[in-house]
User: What shape does this take?
Amino acid sequence: MKIPCKEIAQIIETSLIAEVQVLKQQNVQPKLVTFLLDPTPEQNSFVSIKERVGNKLGIEFELISPQTIPSLEQIKQQMQTVAQDPKTSGIIIQLPLPEQIPSTELYKLIPPQKEIEGHISNSHFQFPLSLAVFTGIKYIYLLSQYHPELDPGSFNNFEMLKQVQHDEIIDQNIIVNFDKDANIFRSFLQNKSIVIAGRGTTGGAPIAKAFDALQIPYIMTASKTQNPDDIYKNADIIITATGKKIINKDNIKPGVILLNVGLRKENGILKGDYDEDEIKDIASFYTETPGGLGPLDVLYLYKNVIDAAKQV
Assistant: This one.
């Protein structure tokens, strides 16, 4: 069963628009500042998506992208100015950076209440993509509460799952509040075998950090992992973040839950770390790509911006 991420995104978007309107009535204008120092076509695309979503939500968006790569001291000075500006609610650094500019030096300059991606240890926020992943998990949990006769991870009930109407499940409760929902996740995920595939700094690593914060055990696989297929075959939940096709119909068990955040192109078509047509009759739940967890990631980024603006 495909997790209805597009419908969930609409719920989150509507909620965020309402929050921004309330803040504006209080003379508070949320603002996101994005530093883009390596403007490749791919990075430009990611930034354009953020700008478009920000405009739709009513959040001010400022892009700082010098035509030539600045020196470390130049960009540090500019970042300090932005960080100290009371109009700045949140700051993000579009990764990767040019080799001569270490990200650690720049993240030191962002106040924890404005570091909305959760990359620094004392940030006030969770990594937005982690929140997107946990939204998929929360959806499955809510379904199990509405339909206790079903076991979402059981292939025995697969045909029954296909007939479930999700409209009643998707409401304001679907939005993840990481701290308040912690006990839900711990309870729901206990005794489940969880695999995080990939350990990149913008994917698997920060997602793993969120599981660590909840003290939920998992197995992490990477390119040098021995016999990864054996690990996948025994997993109840697999979170894929590699940008390669690593999951197929032969290395997963019936009833597995697949949550993808990886991106790859095949014949010019954007895909995730598995082909949906290949796994849709094996997995009990899965996310699609594109249009799956990616849009939720951007919306949670702006939820963090809004929450940061409330702290001012």
